[in-house]
């Protein structure tokens, strides 16, 4: 079984639980959003706090970090944009009438989902609401975005003349058990995906393959064709709510309240691995270099060999649920409801995994060579038998 690891550094600056952790695209900074109503900016180079964003009137539910700007959303019904250098609040987006659960930044758009049953689209630069998406019967928990250029053929695009000005689409998952796909330009609902019998907690999009995956409190994951709205497959083996999803190389990883992660081969729907050892719900997942990292309600992070399912390491030290994890430069960052950001060195785990992969490839190579020699021998024997029989 995996051995215990101790953190390289423990950051205790927040005065409340950390609800989310975001890594900038260039990997230079991390952003934490907390129950204390503030966000903090951290450097991945020195693990120091280099920014403290104050202004929200209630706890921060979620955050998103770009290279030059940070975004936070809050139970105070607002979203804020911050300058990562000066720490100055650059914009406040007002309009939601309840807790803002999620935000998503794509191109020049800022999308948000709220307990007020709506999703909204904002101009990132102008502090202005562009569109409101109204139609869910309950709160909007999760968001995804894509362009129809990524999924539609030319003839299909021509059928959507009304929407040709903008080809952006927003996907929303709700506690009303539905997933909806919306045209951003008009706010019109393009598809309502029906099938779940519980709240939709997570979404993951594979636009090039025209597929959307949704996880729910009904214990299932469903996959949909995002052009036709057709339900393609239902993954049914979990015994608890599906909380988080990760898609890597046509393998789908799902973390659940049943204390397991499962790996599915998307093309067939086959469950090919189950990762056990968690003593509580699996709250967050991250795949890195053949290793599956998990965060759990049991306050531990874990590293599994993604192929064999073998537990390689347990990271102990947090006091409460780990809400989010990030990985950069062979360091694992874990953010917890205990208010701490912990940093762990995962070089040893990565090295062992590389050695194991190298060994497996070597064994496979030898068995492949044996197989080739065996086939060659059998072919020769076959030819000799045929000659003796005069065939």
Give me the secondary-structure topology.
Blueprint lengths: L2 E3 L3 E3 L6 E6 L5 E6 L4 E5 L5 E5 L6 E6 L3 E6 L4 E5 L5 E5 L6 E7 L2 E6 L3 E6 L4 E7 L5 E8 L6 H6 L8 E7 L4 E5 L5 E5 L6 E7 L4 E6 L4 E5 L5 E5 L6 E7 L2 E6 L4 E5 L4 E6 L6 E7 L2 E6 L4 E5 L5 E5 L6 E7 L2 E6 L4 E5 L1 H42 L3
Parallel strand pairs: 1-30
Antiparallel strand pairs: 2-33, 3-4, 4-5, 5-6, 7-8, 8-9, 9-10, 11-12, 12-13, 13-14, 15-16, 16-17, 17-18, 19-20, 20-21, 21-22, 23-24, 24-25, 25-26, 27-28, 28-29, 29-30, 31-32, 32-33
Protein name: WDR86 protein
Keywords: Repeat, WD repeat
InterPro entries: Quino_amine_DH_bsu, WD40/YVTN_repeat-like_dom_sf, WD40_PAC1, WD40_repeat_CS, WD40_repeat_dom_sf, WD40_rpt, WDR86-like
Largest sheet: 5 strands, mixed
Outline the low-pLDDT stretches.
157-165, 367-391
Number of strands: 33
Radius of gyration: 24 Å
Q: Strand order of the main beta sheet, please?
A: 1-30-29-28-27
Count up the helices. 2
- Average pLDDT works out at 89
State the end-to-end CA separation. 58 Å
Strand content: over 45%
Any overview of this molecule?
By secondary structure, the protein is mostly beta strands. It has helices at 154-159, 347-388; strands at residues 3-5, 9-11, 18-23, 29-34, 39-43, 49-53, 60-65, 69-74, 79-83, 89-93, 100-106, 109-114, 118-123, 128-134, 140-147, 168-174, 179-183, 189-193, 200-206, 211-216, 221-225, 231-235, 242-248, 251-256, 261-265, 270-275, 282-288, 291-296, 301-305, 311-315, 322-328, 331-336, 341-345. A 5-stranded mixed β-sheet has the order 1-30-29-28-27. Strands 2-33-32-31 form a 4-stranded antiparallel β-sheet, with no helix packed on it. A 4-stranded antiparallel β-sheet has the order 3-4-5-6, with no helix packed on it. The protein is globular and about 55 Å long. Residues 157-165 and 367-391 have low confidence and may be disordered. Keywords: Repeat, WD repeat. WD repeats lie at residues 11-43, 93-132, 169-192, 193-234, 235-274, 315-347. It comes from Ptilonorhynchus violaceus. Pfam families: WD40.
């Amino acid at each position: 079984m995996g051995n215990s690891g101790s953190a390289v550094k423990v950051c205790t600056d927040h005065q409340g639980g950390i609800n989310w952790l975001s890594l900038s695209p260039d990997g230079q900074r991390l952003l934490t959003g907390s129950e204390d109503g503030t966000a903090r900016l951290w450097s991945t180079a020195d693990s120091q706090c280099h920014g403290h964003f104050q202004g929200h009137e209630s706890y921060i539910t979620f955050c998103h970090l770009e290279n030059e700007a940070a975004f936070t959303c809050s139970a105070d019904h607002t979203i804020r944009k911050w300058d990562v250098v000066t720490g100055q609040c650059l914009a406040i987006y007002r309009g939601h009438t309840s807790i803002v659960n999620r935000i998503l930044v794509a191109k020049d758009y800022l999308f948000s989902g709220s307990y007020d049953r709506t999703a909204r689209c904002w101009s990132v630069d102008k502090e202005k609401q562009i569109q409101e998406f109204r139609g869910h019967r309950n709160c909007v928990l999760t968001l995804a975005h894509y362009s129809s250029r990524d999924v539609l053929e030319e003839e299909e695009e021509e059928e959507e003349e009304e929407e040709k000005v903008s080809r952006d689409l927003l996907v929303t998952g709700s506690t009303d058990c539905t997933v909806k796909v919306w045209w951003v330009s008009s706010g019109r609902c393009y598809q309502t995906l029906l099938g779940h019998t519980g709240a939709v907690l997570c979404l993951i999009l594979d636009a090039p393959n025209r597929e959307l995956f949704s996880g729910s409190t009904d214990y299932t994951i469903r996959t949909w064709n995002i052009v036709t709205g057709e339900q393609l497959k239902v993954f049914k083996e979990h015994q608890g709510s599906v909380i988080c999803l990760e898609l890597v190389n046509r393998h789908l990883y799902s973390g659940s309240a049943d204390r397991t992660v499962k790996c599915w081969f998307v093309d067939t729907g086959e469950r090919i691995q189950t990762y056990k050892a968690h003593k509580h719900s699996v709250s967050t997942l991250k795949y890195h270099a053949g290793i599956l990292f998990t965060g759990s309600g049991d306050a531990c992070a874990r590293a599994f060999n993604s192929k064999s399912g073998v537990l390689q390491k347990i990271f102990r030290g947090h006091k409460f649920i780990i809400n989010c994890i990030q990985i950069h430069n062979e360091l694992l960052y874990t953010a917890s409801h205990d208010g701490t950001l912990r940093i762990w060195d995962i070089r040893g785990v990565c090295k062992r995994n590389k050695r194991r992969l190298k060994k497996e490839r070597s064994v496979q190579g030898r068995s492949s060579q044996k197989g080739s020699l065996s086939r060659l021998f059998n072919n020769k024997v076959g030819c000799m038998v045929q000659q003796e029989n005069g065939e």
